[in-house]
Amino acid sequence: MQTRQLSQMDPAAAPDRWVASTCGFCSVGCGVEIGVMGGEIVGVRGREDHPVNRGRLGPKGLNQYYANRHATRAHYPMVRDGNGELVRASWDEAMQRITEKLGQVLATDGADAVAIYNSGQLLLEEYYTLGKIARAGLGTPNIDSNTRLCTATTAASLTDSFGADGPPAGYEDLDLTECIVLVGHNAAEQSTVLWMRIQAQRDRPDPPRIIVVDPRRTFTVQTGADLHLALQPGTNVALLNGLCHLLIENGWVDREFIDRHTEGYERFRATVSGYTPEVVEGICGVPAADLRKAAEWIGMSRSTVTTCLQGVYQSNQATVAACTVNSMHLLMGKIGKPGSAPFQFAGQPSSMNTRECGADGSYPAYRNWQNPRHMRDLAKRWNVPVERLGQKPVSAPEIFEGCAEGQIKILWNICTNPAVSMMSREKHLRTLRGVFLIVQDCFADTETARLADVFLPAAMWGEKTGCMTNAERRCNLLQKAVEPPGEARADLDIFLDFARRMDFRDRSGQPLIGYADARGAFDEWREISRGTIPDYSGMTYEKLLERGGIQWPCNAEFPEGRTRLYTAPHFPTEEQRAEVWEYDLRSGHERSVRDYRSHADTGGRARLLAAEFEPPADHTDAEYPLRAISGRQAYHWHTRTKTGKSPALTAGAPDVFIAVNDSDAAHYGIADGDTVRVVSRRGFVEGPAKVGDVVREGAVFVPWHYGELDRNAAANNLTPELWDPASKQPIQKGSAVRLERVSDGAGAPWWRDPAPAGRVEMR
After folding, report:
1. How far is residue 300 from each of residues 47, 247, 251, 332, measured CA to CA in Å?
2. pLDDT tens, position by position, 108-132
3. pTM exceeds cut of 0.85
4. Which of 2, 56, 335, 455 is 20 to 30 A from 613 via CA?
């Protein structure tokens, strides 16, 4: 990809300095520079010397600074008064309210009655500190992140297949490969700059073939797919089994690699053997000829990169599907080599850090909570009793279930908006109203913040220093450019203040948190990770800034970082190295050490994993004959907490819509722009119909960014309270629904208006 600097700046702005940072939206991890004038952010531009983006940025990255100075930024703490109103308070008043309530609950109900739910958009140093507070301070197992909703299956599939988390590839492999397979990954809209990088390979003398697996004819399909496998929602496993069946049947496998480096081949072969192209066509609706073509392109290429994202992770049989993708690479020996790897992708900018640092229910640096040796090592490094550690992680769906049942009394919600993003939304709105809710956020007007008992104003991107690690394991440094507004504080400073007020101590009587700033937190993390799989010990802030980020492991063996994992190949599946002792893909049961030793310790071999296709649990019938899927748009991120503050991004995607296939629209008498209602067994969404051929027949699509409390626009009104048994990731795609026409369209819908009111052109 050629260097091309893209920028966005206020009219007539003349920055007095530019501060190196990283984009705070998706997991691609683009290098940016923040333009500052008079103590205010006035623009951004891509870093031309950054190895990820070479100066390029997507629309969200170009417009992200509008949120920093928006009128709705939270400037001071608030507490709910005796009349039920949120009123301004001092930091002392707000923190005292929190610590007093915590003290009461800890005394009467214990640490199990306290839960922390955080984000994929904090900084490494904040995650590490928060995880340490939860595990070694409060002693609660109830900590998870909203990455549970987007990429928990990434970690589950990597640990099941290879023994530990950590994407095996680097973006460089996309520049080198002969075949790219995007499975449920709408890269053009979700990972815009990565898509630019992929598209740049079209100029090669031997451009890669691109296969897209998606029920929708997305912008990715329209702008770059050589082959589109438009499967029925919820049928990923059947299609992937079919591809693997054809690879084996046609001899497009590496038997030497299979025999030396994998386990379970005969069982795997038997599982996929029944998924002939004709069987797959009957289940998925993908023509048998297209499946054969895809298998030939994958099998005959010398190198293949696959990526998976929400179309896999939020769908039926998520972990099974992701593991099958991993197995496809193992069958062909296409891993640990230039241009070949399964890229189990990340969603949010620092979702890798939640998994590495222990803020998503895991333990720091991929330590196995069941392994006494791992827990003794961590207890020694933290200087705390080992008995305090080793509690079974509790996932976000289980945390919210505990809140609903009254077992959890206090929920500390940090930098996320579950009032919109959680499945079975109406139930979770009731749940949030039933606990003592602490909300820590940059904005006090989010749907969740409005329900808070105590609100803490936080600094955001550009207003604090720390690191984020992207989807290729590249750690980047974000430098503070401006001060946060009013009394807002960096999340790390809030955590440090909380730990001091709670007087958390180690075994020697010293403060549990012994550092006072981000650099101190990073230096402690480096030591905690030393000698582990995600080894950061060789990194420094100065080195990160100079290099444009470094991929872990970075240590004495790899002082400049390492592009690929498993080049030997040897996999961390041994009992003493494995991050978890493997989940049963169907039940989610985690093995004991005895079970692991007898059934799953493959001694450094990867596991070939597959399972039979099972239809979605939220079944269609005569009353609910269609399937609703949801997803992102190029102009927005999650619940629009930040992107909704940008005029240009809001103009590009101003409101909810319902995408309907031409055939289904004709059947229901729906015209483009008509108001329609999508109804599931749990609730409904209402909006204008966007009729065309983007979604396949039998499916409707709802963007999930819109979730105001006073109307029915949230896609999660439709979703069932179901989650994948292994990854505990909610199933947010594929709800059984019916479609109802409500009224005629009122004039031209916004997407056909050439100049909607308020549109801002992006430079």
Report:
1. 37, 9, 10, 10
2. 999 999 999 999 999 999 999 999 9
3. yes
4. 335
